[in-house]
Records
---
Amino acid sequence: AFVWFSRVALSAQTATEDRLQQQLVQQEQTIRIDNVNAVELEVTIRATGTQSISVGSMKVYVGNVLQTCVWTSGGSPATTLPPGSTITCEFLSSCNMGTKLRVTAPGGPDETNC
């Protein structure tokens, strides 16, 4: 019984530590909207945290409509956003003046108006 209990306790401790580490990484995956170009239908996002962000974990909304992004950095396709760098999402919906544009990342959202 002692061996079984020890294994269960160790397994629970490991799972808790893994979840805590994951949450700490997510808290450092923060972003800021640098620029919105409503004419070209693109938004430039800067990583403000200390952890890289996968573009798959970021979402862009115009109004409340989720956008499909073509992610580029320096004109080339991009899959991650390293700390301190920028990435651009080219989207398809129009972004009329005054429409809310929101970008979400694991560490939290940022929003502005078009």
Note: The mean pLDDT is 89.
---
Amino acid sequence: MRNAELAMEYHAKGCNCAQSVALSFLKETKLSEEELFKATEAFGLGMGSEKGTCGALSGALVILGFLSSSGTYTNVSKKETYQKAAKLCDRFESIVGNTICGKIKQSESSCSFCIQTACTLLEDIANVID
């Protein structure tokens, strides 16, 4: 099952957009479902209910960090991770039209579209093979 399909299943169960995207990549992390669920809960409704950065995009960025970071002080991976994050954000914005939840909702783009877009882009940018 592709990540976008799995993310839509999580969303249908009541997960917010960030949780839905992040949990669909659970097998690629070394976290438990509970840990990843908790770590992304506050990103719902546009970064803490503030209608800021789209939750689906935020969830994808959390996972990108897990997939791209070396996780050590000695092998600093920030530059590469930041480049991938910028690419993800730029592509998301070009497809969805914005990265801000409140503005996306005004344009009538759906959460489902944002979730699917974030998953597809993350698979491509992080080279996640389904």
Note: The helical segments are 3-12, 17-24, 33-40, 55-68, 78-96, 101-106, 111-125.
---
Amino acid sequence: MKKDFGLKAGVSSFWMHNKYDLFTQCKKGDAKAQRMLYDLFKARLMGLCRRYTNDRAAAQDVLQEAFVKIFRYIHQLESSEKLESWMKSIAVNTAINHFHRNKKQDFILYTGNDDKEDAASVRSFQQLNTFADEFLLSLVNALPDGCRMVFNLFAIEGYSHAEIAEKLQVTEGT
């Protein structure tokens, strides 16, 4: 008998109490469970995709492609405990692949020679904490594509410079 995955309780409490059942049903290809998983994570993954793309349409394309991969390969995942981080990883990698398909090597080399500029940059960065999320997103989206990718991978996702260089297929110095 299939479970009814209604969202009577909050999304967070639903996920905490039912993730194993939902995960198991998704692995079996249950369309209702897949829709529920999509509904639970679309906003969170869309936010991630928006950080890596320069417009909403591209982010939606990346999100759709990521969910296709998630549902295609979910049977390979062994634990519901790893599902959320695995889904985020797929979304990040899908965004990187999108970047590679659409933009090539759009990086600006920063030399870091001026200490006054460095100090001003640090102060400016600290002031950014006071702005709204949408404004920050627009600033990140205004970066050249390569810089935006590096910023997101380093500052948001926590990848090392070596890992970023490998993922983006550039030298670490770039």
Note: Residues 155 and 170 are 18 Å apart (CA to CA).
---
Amino acid sequence: MQQIRAFVAIELDRVLQSALTRIQSPLKDSNVGDIARWVSPASIHVTLKFLGDVPPGRVAEIGQAVERACELFEPFKVSFGDLGCFPHARRPRVIWVGITGDVAILTQLQDAVEEECNKIGFKPERRPFTPHLTLARIRDRAGQQERDRLLNLVSSASVDPTASMQVREVSLIRSELRPSGAVYTVLSSARLGGSSGQG
């Protein structure tokens, strides 16, 4: 039986997607913009739990686990923080924008999702949860000078501090890796504070 590559995440609304486009555009259009693979804002999300390959028959069970986690929380607000990179500025591989707002609640929600998934057999993530949105992945072939120039642009990039959204639901998402990039399909969603829906 073919496995499904899946993860649990918060999807962004159009306001935040548009704000991400405004952050990315001057960086993409710069003379070093092509050293990175830029993630489409429509595909950017806050990952709470990466599940890996799961049997299709477990989708409903996982969706129920996510529902149980979401029952504990009311909707909350998130917005953008500063831009940064992983793993460090000397050799950046990922460019990201941080998340501000009700980060303590977001972290508690991630803990709850982790705990409920652990109960049904998914091992907890060892790395600490760092709320962020991935904007780009720098290509391995990029030289150090190009990386430095792009990082200088990142450090001076403008972020709209007024762009925010209410987090109202969490989705179980399928990821299909294709040559053109990942294609995401919502398998189910769970609303904070209770009700759920199928994708």
Note: Residues 30 and 69 are 42 Å apart (CA to CA).
